[in-house]
Amino acid sequence: MTIALLLLALIWVGFIAYVVLGGADFGAGIWDLFASGPTARQQHQFITHVLGPVWEANHVWLIFLLIGLMNAFPIAFAAFMSALFVPLMIALVGIVLRGAGFIFRAYSIRSEGMFARLWSRVFSTSSLLTPFFLGTAAATVAGGRIRLTDITPSDLLFAWITPFSLSVGVMTVFQCATLAAVYLAAEASIHDETQFAVSYRIKALVSGIITSCLGVLSIALSITQAPWLWHGLFVDALPYVISTVSAGTLVLISLIMRYYRLASLFVILETALMLITWGVSQYPYIIPPQLTIEQAANDPQVITILLIVMVIGMVILLPALLFLFIIFKWTPNVHTTDAHRTEVQKEA
Amino acid sequence: MEQLLAARAQMGTSLAFHIAITLFGVGLPFFLCITEGLALKTKNPTWLLLTRRWAKATAILFAIGAVSGTIISFELGLLWPTYTKFAGEVVGLPFMLEGFAFFLEAIFLGLYLYGWNRLSPLVHWLCSFPIWIGGLLSAWFIVSANSWMNTPAGFVIQQGYIVDINPWQAILNPSMPYETTHQLLACFVATSFGIAAIYAVAFLRGKRDDYHRKALLLAMMVAIIATPLQLLSGDLNARFLAQAQPVKFAAMEGDLYTEKGPPLRIGGLVDPKTGQVYYAIEIPYGESLLVYGNLTGEIRGLDAFALQDQPDAVPVIHLAFDVMVGCGCFALLITGLFWLLFWRRKRRIADNPWLLRGIVVAGPCTVIAVICGWMVTEMGRQPWVISGFLRTRDAVTPAPWVGVTFLVFVLIYLLLSSALVWLLLGLLRQPLPQAESIEEIYHEAEESVGV
Predict the structure, then answer these.
(1) Number of folded domains in chain A?
(2) Hey, what's the torsion of the CAs at B125, B131, B134, B135, to 10 degrees?
(3) CB of A311 less than 8 A from some CB of B
(4) How many domains are contained in chain B?
(5) Which among A263, A272, A33, A250 is positioned nearest to A132, based on CA atoms?
(6) Is A167 domain-assigned?
(7) Could you tell me which residue, B446 or A325, shows the higher pLDDT?
(8) How high is the ipTM of this complex?
(9) For the whole prediction, is pTM greater than 0.95?
């Protein structure tokens, strides 16, 4: 294993963290958009409460992905950024609007005022759009549609639009929704919000099944549209494909049996395996089928320094991050749930 | 719109917005640390009420600073892919370190903002340290990456390839100490005057209770320490630039010709076409005195450099520089007057309305000064993006539609700024909660944040 590959693996771990944490934030925004009925307001409050302490930290993982690629694989990074200008610009607008929308809603003076309602919509709508464009951008890379030479203006505008990438984009949206629904069900059951737990359980099951169908469709489309990926999937990554499918099945089973925390663990495992599958099937290319990881790698000395810095940084950060999650995610909050329950009872 | 111009405009707008917001994102947590510390030490609930109020403003400004920072990290690649290819090879390290420092800030900010009644008061206060230290570090790292663009170091070009890369040397490039110090101090100056301006308005409206008094005094106290240091750092910076980036220096001083003992030109329109500087106030030998401390020092003017290596916006650079210096001097004058009157009136805040109005004006002035300073740094480096190595026009993306994305982002910034101002004003108008003890504030806290 070369040092460049080792670093890429570390960046990939960061990428997985982004998808399982940041992706779930997008998913929570999606459920926020579709929250309706008499409990819509409580659902919004619940989501604000769940995301509040962690969403900023969850999105820093994306910066790691960007900067890691830029420093370790500058040629590939520059090529991605030129070729994916359109989907990434749109995703960027989405990231900005959802972050701003979330904080404006959470800190609005009157939670039912025009200002709060408007930014609430901005937050939830951009939570739906952003993962779609990020997913298509990823599929454009995996599908081998990034060209290093002879780039035409129409490539720059439309290379990312293929049935395969669109299908992966939609799948990404549903995967985010599934992740969020599973976590929200678990979180609701910790706080004894049985009503919410039941509803997110059904949402998780439905979106999980849709995600699997879209997964099958995307793989089928890859036969003609992304032959490199298809080949990689069945030659190098078959064990990972099988593990991903098994983890997905375990998510469904544990949801059916109402083991919400177990389901959270399995859905993280399933997402991680899915991304590992992608990584393994694309190996040794960083831009299939033109540029390998080794060809794109920066000076080994620079990569070594980066690797050391990243490991030291993680050693400092991870305990702090764990502390954050233990404080807010594993400790039931008597204070707010009490207030919340009285509110629900009052309305009932 | 022309591709290069559109890309520069979009990058410039994004940077200006991000910098203006993050001045407070870095500065406010430092104030939180002081006020909460004072609350714990004195058990005075007023300090804690201030902390609570400022924490809300911090949460909003930090979030907007974070999303606008995400814009910058994407735009570096999306608008300037060739730049990231070059800079990524050499100077990716400070970007990564900045990422870590920012991560630390985000984690502890989450704990701080939502942990009022989940953490003990002491632990809660301790959580404010990694926030402001992380903020200063991330500003330090990112500005060191920018200073590398001004004075590139840590690599060699051999037959068109970058070799002998030393990322540490790249971070420790010659401009780094000057630029980073100037920016870090700017965070303290702008935040202290920003806070002071808000409470000076309250004073003008007759709200002179302990709460407003404490806020104004604390802000002016930080201001009187940070502002003189900032002017000193600016002076060192200018002298350094005269040696290290003479083209930028000539543009900001409005020196069209090489002269011995040049005057200091204040204001005026520099016209490189006619070779004249119109309407400037000239102080004889002033520039020579400032740079060399004598009357005969030689300063290279723009005529000493090839036309294709000169910046394209000399009049703007000169004016931006003078506005920055003017605003900085005004801020120093105001804080000096404030403390002079304070001591002469036996430690009472002067109720002179003109002094209070001066503080109100100084608030926005300090932010304008920072933006103008960055305009000098960035426009003065043109036509290079990496000084002497990569021209801005060679770094720009080939992607079409940059004009469109520029307009979209201008709209987004307008939207965000107006929502931000509206929300912060609303926050200010909220009545202050009554509290008997600091424990009560800690206990009641969570209900009003984000839920």
Answers:
(1) 1
(2) -130
(3) no
(4) 1
(5) A33
(6) yes
(7) A325
(8) 0.89
(9) no
